[in-house]
Amino acid sequence: MTKQVIISFCAAGAIAFLAGCENMGGPSRSSGYQRQQIDASKAQSDQVSQLSATVVSLTNTNNEVIKTVNDLNQKIAALEQRNAALEKSLGAMQQQLSAQRQEYQTSINKMIDQVSREVSKASVSPASSGGPVGTGEFFEHKVESGQTLGAIAKAYNVSVQDIMSANKMKDTNLRVGQTLYIPKKK
Fold first, then answer.
1. CA-to-CA separations, 12 to 2, 3, 45, 129, 165, in angstroms, rounded
2. pLDDT tens digits for range 51-83
3. Is-contact 176 143, C-beta < 8 A?
4. What is the pTM of this model?
């Protein structure tokens, strides 16, 4: 603001000096001419004042724009910091998720192995683990789909209990492909 005031005073002083020089340096001119010079001087002074006001207004506007730009830069910096923190947090979550997936997969694999062992134990036929119980001769019969222990016993003309005893069976459940030892009747 002080620059504008100094400029205004300098401009007004220069105009007054020039107007005074004309009066001092030569023959006296007409009062009409002097009047014109004074009016021109006032007009120039008014223009200088308007230009000074415009400069002040533009300076104020420029200062406001600079302040706004600085505020925006601070907000951008804060957002960039927040974004970096979120990316770091996301990376940590992804690592944690990956570790959990690996743990789950390991756990699933252990369960699958355990179930496989249990199924293997359950599917081992007592008849195939050492042959028939008892003495004498036996037929070997491979169980086919849809066969029951009763139907097999009837086909060989023996009792269900005879087949169960010869094969160390605890119940009448059969599996397709299972080998049964059927005692031969004499």
1. 15, 14, 6, 124, 133
2. 999 999 999 999 999 999 999 999 999 999 999
3. yes
4. 0.39
